[in-house]
Amino acid sequence: MNTATTTELNYANHYGWSDVNPYEIVRRVSEKTLEVRAMAATPKGTNLKFEVGGFCAHCTNQNEQEWEIFSDPSRPVIRIRLGKSGWKDARGNRFQLAAAPRKFYDYNF
Fold it and tell me: What's the helix, strand, coil split of the chain in %, to 5?
């Protein structure tokens, strides 16, 4: 069970279908409003394996991917708000607060 409180979490990961993109919390406006900024991510030397299949290829070990994630002050700051169905931005994109940033790209989508 996660015992961290909202004020102890410094990241808000964006969940778009099966992909996950890291955001950092840059300002706490209120208990239900946060300002977040997208973080940059570059793949580490993970050796992904692709086989013929799907639209172009099928990645058999995509759960082994690793990313180097770092802050990018040049990216815009957006607001996310806590509602009945969780944290969302003005466009309805879903976010989940976390203690660490997370990046995942679904190569098989």
Answer: 5, 50, 45
